[in-house]
Amino acid sequence: MANEKVYAKGIRCFPKHEKQPSFVLGAMVITIAELNDWVKQNEQYLTDYNGQKQLKFQILQGDKGINLVVDTYKKQEAF
Fold first, then answer.
1. Distance CA 26, CA 24 (A)
2. Residue-wise over 28-56: b if at least 16 C-beta within 10 A, else e?
3. Do residues 57 and 7 make contact, with C-beta atoms less than 8 angstroms apart?
4. SS (HEC) of 10-78
5. How far is CA 51 from CA 9, 36, 37, in A?
């Protein structure tokens, strides 16, 4: 069964405008308070790196342009 995509609230991606140069891929807006609230309710998606909490994303191309999906991959321990 494929994992469902997890989208963090407070992050919105938009496709580039047709008049923007080719090096522009799109735009992103982060609403800090909304993202903070979402993170507090979804701490299971946080990872640790050098003692700091992180939220990893995958950048995907979709029907409506670029979007960010929470990277939910967990490395499996070898037995």
1. 6
2. eeeeeeeeeebbeeeeebeeeeeeeeebe
3. no
4. CEEEEECCCCCCCCCCEEEEECHHHHHHHHHHCHHHEEEECCEEEECEEEEEECCEEEEEECCCCCCCC
5. 24, 19, 22
Q: What CA–CA distance (Å, rounded) separates 79 from 56? A: 26
Compare 23 and 62 and report the one with higher pLDDT: 23
Q: Evaluate the CA torsion angle 28, 39, 62, 23 in order and state its sign.
A: positive
Burial of 67 (0-12, 13-18, 19+ CB in 10 A): buried
- Please give the pLDDT value at position 2: 57
Q: How far apart are CA 18 and CA 39, in angstroms?
A: 34
Question: Does position 77 have pLDDT exceeding 80, yes or no?
Answer: no
